[in-house]
Amino acid sequence: MDRRVKSTKKDKNGNIIALCNAGESWSPRRKADIIKDITGNKRSYYVEEAARRVYIRVTGDSLQTSKDAASVNHLEKLPAG
Predict the structure, then answer these.
(1) How far apart are CA 49 and CA 13, in angstroms?
(2) Mean per-residue pLDDT for 23-41?
(3) In the predicted model, is pLDDT for residue 67 greater than 70?
(4) Tally of domains within the chain
(5) Distance, C-alpha 65 to centroid of its chain
């Protein structure tokens, strides 16, 4: 089941600590739980931009949408939730 992410929660240093979609029963979902969901192939999360889905990946202990450091991480552009 794909879950659309519309906003993020960040700590005082600007690090993403949760992903959100207001009105959804799963939201907010802590970063550690999202990492378990993705790496365990239980759920997938995505950001929608320009009418297309950009899926979130786990890179080490972080979440990102870009394939490489030169690409834009769409999570950084989302509003606080």
Answers:
(1) 26
(2) 96
(3) no
(4) 1
(5) 8
Pairing of strands 57-59, 62-64: antiparallel
45 pLDDT higher than 60: yes
Domain membership of residue 70 (yes or no) is: no
Mean pLDDT of the chain: 88
| Other C-beta atoms lying within 10 Å of the C-beta of residue 35 | 16
In this predicted structure, the answer to whether residue 69 has a pLDDT above a threshold of 60 is no
Say if 48 falls within a structural domain.
yes
What is the domain range of residue 9? 2-65
Q: Residue 9 has which token pair?
A: 């929660």
Residue 11 lies in a domain: yes
Largest alpha-carbon pair distance within the chain? 34
Domain assignment of residue 6, yes or no: yes
